[in-house]
Amino acid sequence: xxxxxxxPGFDYTRSYGPLLGRFAAGLRAxxxxxxxxxxxxxxxxxxxxxxxxAAALSELVPVSPTGTVRTWSWQSAPLSGQxxxxxxxxxxxxxxxxxTAMLHAVEAPGPEAMRTGMRVHARWAAExxxxxxxxxxxxxxxxxxxxxxxxxxxxxxxxxxxxPIHLSYMHSASPQESTYLRELAxxxxxxxxxxxxxxxxVPPRGACPVDGVPTEEEVELGDNATIxxxxxxxxxxxxxxxxxxxxxxxxxxxxxxxxxLHIVLGCAASEVRMGMRVRAAWKPREEWTTNLANIDHxxxxxxxxxxFESYAHHL
Amino acid sequence: xxxxxxxxxxxxxxxxxxxxxxxxIAGLCREAVDRALADANMDIADIDAVVLxxxxxxxxxxxxxxxxxSDAIGATGKPMMRVHTAGSVGGSTANVAANLxxxxxxxxxxxxAFEKQSESxxxxxxxxxxxxxxxxxxxxxxYFAPHVRSYIxxxxxxEEIGARVAVKDRRNGVRNEFxxxxxxxxxxxxxxxSTMLWDPIRFDETCPSSDGAAAVVITDxxxxxxxxxxxxxxxxxxxxTTYSGRDQVNPRAGRDAAAALWRDAGITDPLSEVDVAEIYxxxxxxxxxxxxxxxxxxxxxxxxxxxxxxxxxxxxLPVNPSGxxxxxxxxxxxGMVRFAEAAMQVMGSAGEHQVDGARTxxxxxxxxxxxxxxxxxxxxxxx
Lengths: 315, 383
What we know:
The complex is a heterodimer of chains A (about 325) and B (about 375).
Chain A: E1 3-6, E2 9-15, H1 17-28, E3 32-36, E4 42-43, E5 60-63, E6 66-75, E7 88-95, E8 102-106, E9 119-124, E10 135-140, E11 160-166, E12 169-172, H2 175-184, E13 189-193, E14 200-201, E15 217-221, E16 224-233, E17 246-253, E18 260-264, E19 277-282, E20 295-300, H3 308-311
Chain B: E1 6-13, H1 25-39, E2 49-54, H2 65-68, E3 80-83, H3 89-102, E4 108-116, H4 122-125, H5 139-155, H6 161-174, H7 188-193, E5 196-199, E6 201-202, E7 211-220, E8 229-238, H8 252-265, H9 270-273, E9 276-278, H10 286-293, H11 302-307, H12 324-327, H13 331-347, E10 360-367, E11 372-379
Parallel strand pairs in B: 2-3, 2-4, 9-10
Antiparallel strand pairs in B: 1-7, 1-8, 4-7, 5-6, 8-11, 10-11
């Protein structure tokens, strides 16, 4: 079976709201704030709604950057994007003045340096942006306290946080689709017939959507096709691979029982019609891979338009 | 345990808008929840179970938001579940909540749905280029535009029908305090002069991107007072996105769901018996398409009702007096807004966009590639 990476990513833009916005502004100023719950408990990190009563919370109180490890585990091989590049501990840390423990990283030479009940304090990131990552990590030992040199709690609210998220998948084609893709790499379009309904699917399916069984009998399809319907895409958007405007059309290959989407070139967009006859324009052979994009586009083949009745049941 | 009567006794929604940078996702949801509870004259403590609806996680990049939101939506210590049926999810969520009451499982259920489109970009999220395929996808508009073209070809509808729907819905939105877009001065000519985005769909025939949330409180008859929208029937159907011979213009799942809904509600002539319909119309041409799919008109004749003005607020079947999805599209919540607006109409609480004498109303939603359908039929009278 063929596989290929699929890696979507986006810089999400979070809005904090009034309470979390003050919590984030505190972090930027190297102060940790907790939200006082309906029962007087101080929740760190701050929460917008009381976990017991669901009441909306509004009071924030400063807590110490020093606290006690309540439990921990060792990350011996850190992953990309984690707080530290070298091995470190994940710990639930209850800061002095807080009633709940927060999850963060503790920098330590090894797991033998970690124990439940140990005292740790926050180490701040050099560049802060109003986010939980403004605490670079915690380190063993007591930190500064209120009698010392703690910065003032700012009277500020952070509004937004940009949060990039990138996912890394390995996308696998079904055995049937893999066969079709290998044929595409040889310059052939091969569909497969469902053994029950006898419909020819292109791409072939691991399960016919109607009968639930794999399509199996290979059917080689030619380059000629009918446009069943289409639209003209004029809209640009992030991540777009084809520069607009372009004609996005449902292409029904001769001999196939289902259309697929492709682009149409070789005539003005205003000349494209439902029922227009087209043929595949392949890329140069040396560019062929296991991809439908081996067909660069479809282009008018000069034949008279197909009668509406011939494709009406594919709309 | 026999079937219980169930009714909507409270609805709430946010003022839908492009960017709600002043609140978190939790704060947005809570605004709708608080309004629905106030409308129902209840507190969060009165609720027995919570159902949350949400469109694809990629839209905000938050996996399993129902867990992060459980405090905000008052689900602590209660049964809570999340529903996901793409764009129809708001409707499906209301249906799940309704059926938790109708089955006798719970007496007072809160249903909530949201979308905060400003945190991401739905066109990007709906157009991820899958390996081995042509990267031609161009968002929801790019998906639906070819099928709109097929409808126009099949029905022979005049070209301006889409623009007429846009003018009606945007003007309706002016009378809805929660609507995102309100365009009192919109005209047929201005719609037709707007940019062609995905030919044949123009800019003014397209829903906006909205931040918003909606909530409904559904109870059994012991908790329902006189002011209630009684749920007479619910229906949901699904079909694959693609299969050979699939009718993308008039999908079977929608026809089957509607047939089941009318049967269960005892309705034989929907056009005569339904007073107002809130139908999921994200692109204007879907009004005539869904009028046919729902059985308000025979196939190919939905546009005739639109052209004759029968879907105007003063027409035979007012469609989307709230302004509909064309005025506000917080995707995950849009279906629930349709369902809530239907309930508001029969409760007489739709304010300036109230349809006089509305006693029977349809709420409708669809999602994915026209592959998920959900609907309910509410009345001012108990079943």
